[in-house]
UniProtKB/TrEMBL annotation:
GO biological process terms held by the UniProt record: apoptotic DNA fragmentation
GO molecular function: deoxyribonuclease II activity
Similarity comment: family membership: Belongs to the DNase II family.
Keywords carried by this UniProt record: Apoptosis, Developmental protein, Disulfide bond, Endonuclease, Glycoprotein, Hydrolase, Lysosome, Nuclease, Signal
Main location: other
Source organism superkingdom: Eukaryota
InterPro entries the UniProt entry points to: DNase_II (IPR004947)
Purpose of the protein: Hydrolyzes DNA under acidic conditions with a preference for double-stranded DNA. Plays a major role in the clearance of nucleic acids generated through apoptosis, hence preventing autoinflammation. Necessary for proper fetal development and for definitive erythropoiesis in fetal liver and bone marrow, where it degrades nuclear DNA expelled from erythroid precursor cells.
UniProt name for this protein: Deoxyribonuclease-2-alpha
Keyword Magnesium listed: no
Length: 393
């Protein structure tokens, strides 16, 4: 009898062990791939889904190796300011790589990639350049994110099969804003993009999502049906529109989108008076027809001349390709604590091109950007500390 019990005990142990192995293999095979997420979202350096983040890619110091031009700062929800990036901006385990990673995996998601300097060519045909816009939109049946940025030739096409960061984005500073939105917000985002007249170089909207985001489907259909993929159809054109966009967690952002027919500076003619605040604006200065600081109206717009994001390195704005604006003050009767990150500069040519910016009022984010602006062009044209510029002359 004891022999039978022993055999029975061994058999039961063997079955238990095999069941354990079976369950382990099942869990292993069904687990999400590393970096994959149940839904599309902005992701921070630690792999956490976040409502939003700001990312500042720092410029490459002179005569330093390329890796020095791939360092970045990150500011996400719950942050008290800029933090050092967990690696290099092109790492698949960084915030950008994790967020855009699902694009290069198999899955039923919608996406639109747009850039006036797309990856497959140096620049869009000058005869049909459309908006000065750069960004990426990814969404599934529940939610997604809108990434607005300043980097040429980014991100890679889906057919590349993996995330990467272009060499053309190494030398100069670059800026990114990623916001997670519920699916119902993306039709409004698509309408904003239609006004911008973006150059769409890669896109797909699955049939299952078309009825939820008709504007995105129209953008992609227009792109796929035209030899030149810049959106220029008159039916998409409108001078300008601003809309409030609530993030997935209920954070309020304001999207300002202008088209070619606006024919004026985004910041001085529209954003500053709309937000009722004086603005300090960082933008790409190595272009023709740069607009001077403008103090002709109630709300002043001053050009940033020298900056130091996070206090890590100090440099001239000619080494920074990013486009952002910050209110001169943090509060008071004249408004304040506004931060805007977008994709268009202050120059004569871009007054007649589409583009936009995404703004929010937040003291922590405002402090991070406001502290980065060290010297500005004053109303008199003199370059001095931004704190001492004659904002109200």
């Amino acid at each position: 009898m004891s022999h039978v019990k022993l055999m029975y005990s061994r058999a039961r142990g063997l079955i238990t062990a095999r069941m354990f192995v079976f369950v382990f293999l099942l869990i292993f095979l069904l687990r999400p791939a590393e970096g994959a997420n149940a839904t599309i979202s902005c992701i921070d350096d630690q792999g956490n889904a976040v409502d939003w983040f700001y990312l500042y890619k720092l410029p490459r110091p002179h005569e330093q190796p390329p890796e020095e031009g791939l360092k970045y700062l990150l500011l996400a929800e719950q942050s008290e300011g800029w933090t050092e990036g967990g690696g290099l901006v092109g790492d698949v385990t960084g915030a950008l790589g994790r967020s855009l990673g699902p694009l290069y995996e198999n899955g039923d998601l919608g996406y639109i990639l747009y850039n006036d300097q797309p990856p497959e060519q140096r620049r869009v045909d000058d005869t049909n350049r459309g908006g000065h816009t750069k960004g990426a939109v990814l969404f599934d049946s529940t939610q997604g994110f809108w990434l607005v940025h300043s980097t040429p030739h980014f991100p890679p096409l889906k057919t590349e099969g993996k995330f990467s960061y272009p060499n053309s984005g190494i030398n100069n500073g670059q800026n990114f804003i990623c916001v997670t939105y519920p699916l119902e917000r993306f039709d409004t985002i698509g309408e904003q993009l239609q006004i911008n007249q973006p150059h769409i170089y890669d896109c797909d909207v699955p049939e299952s999502l078309v009825s939820s985001v008709p504007s995105m489907a129209s953008l992609c259909k227009h792109r796929n049906g035209q030899k030149n993929s810049t959106v220029t159809d008159a039916s998409f054109s409108s001078p300008n529109r601003s809309v409030s966009l609530l993030s997935r967690a209920g954070t309020q952002f304001i999207s300002f989108a202008k088209g070619a027919s606006f024919k004026n500076d985004l910041y001085h003619a529209w954003v500053a008076p709309s937000l009722q605040t004086d603005l300090l604006v960082q933008f790409w200065r190595r272009s023709a027809g740069v607009l001077s600081s403008d103090c002709s109206a109630s709300w002043k717009v001053l050009n940033v001349e020298q900056l130091s994001p996070g206090g890590r390195v100090t440099y001239k704005t000619t080494e920074d390709h990013s486009k952002w604006a910050v209110s001169a003050g943090g509060g008071g009767l004249r408004g304040g604590a506004w931060v805007c990150v977008g994709d268009i500069n202050r120059n004569q040519a871009e007054e007649a091109r589409g583009g936009g910016t995404v703004c929010r009022q937040d003291v922590v984010v405002w402090k991070a950007y406001r502290a980065a602006a060290l010297e500005c062009e004053s109303c008199t044209g003199k370059v001095e500390k931004c704190e001492s510029t004659r904002l109200y002359d």
